[in-house]
Amino acid sequence: MTVSWSEQTPECYGDVCITCSDEAVQVRVVRMLDDGLAVVDTGYGEEEVSVALVSTAVGEQILVHAKEAIVVLGSEP
Fold it and tell me: What's the gap between Cα 72 and its chain centre?
């Protein structure tokens, strides 16, 4: 029996990443650090994340997946 690649490959659905079953989380940048890092407010505390893939600043909302910023949403109104 031969199975095609499309039949073997799982697909993402909704807001869930099939790779790690994780979601991107919206956070606020509170402090920029060296080496493409930033401290963000998660709503539950502060965490250090990479912002190397985006151009962001203190006060902006970003989406973070696996401790990596992937989208800048902008500032709060």
Answer: 10
Residues 32, 37, 39, 40, Cα dihedral to 10° = 110
Q: Are 40 and 64 in contact (CB under 8 A)?
A: yes
d(CA 18, CA 20): 6
Q: For 10-64, write each residue's pLDDT tens digit.
A: 555 566 555 555 678 899 999 999 999 999 999 989 999 999 999 999 999 999 9
Which CATH architecture does the domain made up of 22-75 adopt?
A: Roll (2.30)
Query: Whole-angstrom Cα distance, residue 1 to residue 20?
Result: 29
Domain range list for the chain? 22-75
